[in-house]
Amino acid sequence: MDKKGQALVEFVIILPIFLLLVLGVVDLGKIMYQRTMLEGAMSDVVSLYEAGKSEEEIIQDIDLDVSLNIEESDQVVTFHLLKEIDIITPGLNLILDNPYQLDVSRSISDE
After folding, report:
1. What does the alpha-carbon distance between residue 27 and residue 39 come to, in Å, rounded to a whole number?
2. pLDDT, tens digit (0-9, with 9 covering 90-100), for 12-63
3. Which SS3 state, helix, strand or coil, does residue 3 take?
4. Nearest-CA neighbor of 39 among 84, 94, 80, 85?
5. Angle, vertex CA 81, rays to CA 79 and CA 86, nearest 5
6. Alpha-carbon distance 109 to 34, whole Å?
7. What is the dihedral of CA 58, 49, 105, 61, to 10 degrees?
8. How many helices (H) and strands (E) does the chain have?
9. What DSSP string describes 48-64?
10. pTM to 2 decimal places
11. Where are the domains of the chain?
């Protein structure tokens, strides 16, 4: 029996599974990193809004490739930072939409 041939067949069987796992971890890590960045930027957005800046000025000041939505109701102001993240793992886009829509929101009272 040829041991080299057996090792090659095992490698060929395991390689795609290993690559899917590695790419999945990279995608999930990218999503978690971007969520952390958006949560950190959200405090800057709230501070800039309280300083009286417009949505366009806030987007320029935080310097991220995101879209900002500000909803004002009776006494509550809700901020939404939205970012699209491309999924590179084959098959993961069946579970998560591609591009994945990341939404971080915060509500404050408008006194």
Report:
1. 18
2. 999 999 999 999 999 999 999 999 999 999 999 999 998 988 888 888 888 8
3. helix
4. 80
5. 160
6. 26
7. 20
8. 3, 3
9. HHHTT--HHHHHHHHT-
10. 0.80
11. 3-109
